[in-house]
Amino acid sequence: MEKQITRFTSWLKKQNAAFFFSILFILFSLYFLITSFDYPYHTKFGIGPGFFPRWVSILAVITGILYLISSVTREKFSFEDAFPGAKGIGNVLLVVASIVLFIVIAPYTGFVIAGSLMLFSIFIKQYTLSKSIIYAILITVICFLIFKKAFSVPLPVNAWGF
Amino acid sequence: MKNSKLFVLFLVVVFGTLVLSGFSSVFAADYPDHEITIVVPYNAGGASDMTSRIVATGMQEALGQTILVVNKPGGSGGVGMSEVRAAKPDGYTISYIPVEIVMHETLKLSDLKSDDFDYIGQLTLVPSALTVAADAPYNTVKEFVDYALAHPGEVTIGNSGAGSIWHIAATYLEQVSGAKFNHIPFDGAAPAVTALMGGHINAVTVNAGEVLSGVEAGKLKILAIMTEERDPNMPDVPTMKESGFDVVIGGWGGLGVPKGTPADVMEKLSAAVEKATDSQEFKDFISQRGMVVCYKNSADFTKFVADQTVFFTDLLSKMELGG
Amino acid sequence: MIESLGSLMQGLAVAISPMNILYCFIGCAVGMLVGVLPGIGPTEATALLIPLTYGMSPVSAIIMLCGIYYGGMYGGTITSVLINTPGEAASVVTCLDGYPLAKQGRAGVALKVAAYGSFVGGILSIFGLVLLAPPLADWALKFGPSEMFALLVFGMCMVVGLMGKSMIRGLVSIFIGLLLALVGMDTVSGAVRFTLGSNQLVGGLSIVTICMGLFGLSEILVGMENLSQTNKVSSVASSKLRKEEWGPTVGSIIRGSFLGFFMGLIPGTSSAIPALISYSMEKRLSKHPEKFGTGIPEGVAGPETANNSYVGGAMIPLFTLGIPCSPTIAILMGAFMLHGLTPGPTLFIENPIVVWGTIASMFVGNIILLIMNVPLANVWAKVAQIPNKMLYPVVLIVAILGAYTVSNSMFEVGIMLVCGVIGYLLKKLDIPMAPIALVFVLSEMMERSILQSIKINKGLSGLYNSPICMTLLIISVIILIVSLFAEYSNKKSRFLTSDDE
């Protein structure tokens, strides 16, 4: 299993990132192109809501194809060049995961707990435990006071009001 | 590794408090015992938002509790109102309810229905006014309609977006008079009025308050207002009815709570709204904005909404909107 | 004209009463604060503070609210320069050179140049307001849907100048912006498009959320990659301009002032347009266009000046015709009405003290901002020195709050996260991001205006019957051709030198 993963990663490293992205981009444009057919191109009052999306997405698909061609001919970006090693990616994923965690739990726990947890999970790799907890709570509480109290932004809160 | 154990401990503590917080349900003391939220389903700074904020200040005094005004814009009011509909019917979450509530179902804007709410009271009436450039060749609605009949499809009327109340108002006039207009949607009423001033369109049917500055600047004239009676702030402007076209239409705004709110809570809220709409501040603001203070109590407003639902559903089904 | 100056002096007497100076100061300070905090822009802050002004005299109330407006305009600059996170569309171009300057330890330079530029732009546009108001307001009304469309086409051509090294990657970026702008309800037909069935998307995506994600969050994600390494904090370099930088910077400030002022007059524009045009224009006029985007002061000065002088220009239609040109101005108009004043020409006659007091207070406000910001620039510059492992999490939570505040819902935070991940990928692939944000703002207005024009004129005749429109379209085509050619020859020369870098 481990062997396969290493093989996979070394294979991936050599791949052309721009090529993959251009395919993603083409799919993204195609979604718009296909969906644009749901909206009338013409109405009896003139141009319909389908007109602009149709043309924009057609041009976007063409751009995507040109990008695809240039990615294999001229502008190669291997994953190795573009992305850092496993550790770097791990950090990036950690941030993304902590935001997801925040989004999921904040409506139940309130902003302060969810925000502190999010910051804590990022801080813990850089600071000592006690510092991480203090910083995480301090920063969250300050933000909470500014946005909630001073600007009365209705941040999600728990039963105790934070 | 010590760190990760402590981290687990930290998580346990946090989630523990989380679970406990779920049980600490608040037992009802006398309503209201904590802050109340009014959700405005439009952006900050608009007429609906300002109206709600001023009413909130008045209600705050009457109820003795903080009232937060929160903007949840999007989807022709659908986002904010849907959220209030889903809230607990305990009187702590109130929605500003605009005229659009009676159209959501017919126009397929969302799955909101007008009987999803209990209605506390009406605040305002927002009359539509037919306004044209000051140097236009017509001075009355009659002349305007005659001109439009002679030039079918050529008279351009600006509104604040397709399917908006002002678009419907113009279409209603079209239906009653038999004229054919060219409806031009703008992104809000102000850009439509600006285009009228610049001579890019022939008329607008938006709220009178939006055109007052233009009238004072000598650039625009109001031909008629689409209410039952003349507006005391503009005694010289005739109503559509007087001019021979039975067109009474306009926007309105009120407050509502999720269906099933207890009667005693409704009573308290209704009394607070009545007091708030009676303040001088509120009256001044509303009339300056070209709107009309129109307080209706819970029962009257509920009936009014039901009538309006029938009226608009009928009207919209006869119209060919869109395009 | 002399009369106007006389009235202005009277107004000045009102504006420099200690209480009014205090209110102006409060307004500027609050404005700067909300400018720095994403999500809460000047529009929201003005709306929130209006109820507080009930008890105040009309002049003081308006003075304070105006202070918030131009204070907010400046506040947005700070985050763009320091953490590459524009709080609104107008500051997107400021990031292009402001952030590289900050990375070189020259954040102080960027902020100071922006402060001076804002000041000059603000003052010049107020003079314009005093001396030229009525005739200009009438001229600006000539901009109907057709003319607006031509102006937006012109703006789009300017975006080409921001495409970066590769034409094809620039185009990809432009199309991402165009496609994202399609999401939501189409104002013209009322049709709801590309929402994947989500009620929350009916209103379309928000530019603030997109900016927070594409710029702010993606910056954090890239930074997180090597957070563990001791991060190199560039020392604060001198916050003075270098000798050779003076000329172009002063030039860009003066050009930016005029540009912003005239754009402000036109109803329905946004302050992002003058900022964008100013940046492209400076790049075009520069002797070293290749340095744009690497951190040069004139790239910050021009756009910042333009978006501040835009404020003065935008006041003209408000005062003379009662037309609110932008959302913030619309709220200011609401504030006038709340205090029993209807903006429009009669206001000058009935309440000259209010009008001239307000105008004079804008002078005072700009001076206050300058006094506050020049020394503060050095303080802010130190923010760029906070170690990344502390700075990034703080920026992260503020960005999340900013996105949340847009519609007070967690959904918006989710959108920001998606934009952040996309931004991260784009950065990796060297696809420029500024075009996405700018095209997003422009294209929505563009679709609306062309459809309105076609509907009003029953065809395309609106475009070729209007001289303003034709002129703008022809200039656009010329610029497009010239800039495409320039990009091409630029690229050729860069191929020869790129190996040395």
From TrEMBL, chain A:
User: InterPro entries given for it?
Assistant: DUF1468
Pfam families on file: TctB (PF07331)
Keyword Membrane assigned to the entry: answer is yes
Specify the superkingdom: Bacteria
Residue ranges annotated as transmembrane are 17-39, 51-69, 89-120, 132-151
Give yes or no: UniProt keyword Membrane.
Answer: yes
Keyword annotations of the record: Membrane, Transmembrane, Transmembrane helix
Q: Can you tell me which residues the record assigns to a coiled coil?
A: none
Q: What name does the UniProt record give this protein?
A: Tripartite tricarboxylate transporter TctB family
TrEMBL record, chain B:
This protein's record includes keyword Disulfide bond? no
Instruction: Write the record's keywords in alphabetical order, separated by commas.
Output: Receptor, Signal
Task: Show the Pfam families listed in the entry.
Answer: TctC
Q: Where is the signal peptide?
A: 1-28
> Domain of life, per the record?
Bacteria
Protein family: Belongs to the UPF0065 (bug) family.
Matches recorded under PANTHER family: BLR1237 PROTEIN, TRICARBOXYLATE-BINDING PROTEIN
State the protein's name. Answer: Tripartite-type tricarboxylate transporter, receptor component TctC
Q: Say which species the protein is native to.
A: Flexilinea flocculi
Automatic annotation (TrEMBL), chain C:
Q: Which organism is it from?
A: Flexilinea flocculi
What's the protein here called?
A: TctA family transporter
Give start and end of each DUF112 domain.
Answer: 21-436
Tell me which UniProt keywords the record has, alphabetically.
Membrane, Transmembrane, Transmembrane helix
Q: What is the lineage of its organism?
A: Bacteria, Bacillati, Chloroflexota, Anaerolineae, Anaerolineales
Q: Which Pfam families match?
A: TctA
Segments traversing the membrane: 21-41, 47-70, 113-136, 148-164, 171-195, 201-222, 318-341, 353-378, 390-407, 413-442, 463-486
The record's listing under InterPro entries reads: DUF112_TM (IPR002823)
Keyword Transmembrane appears in the UniProt entry: yes
Q: Which residues form a coiled coil?
A: none
* Highest taxon of source: Bacteria
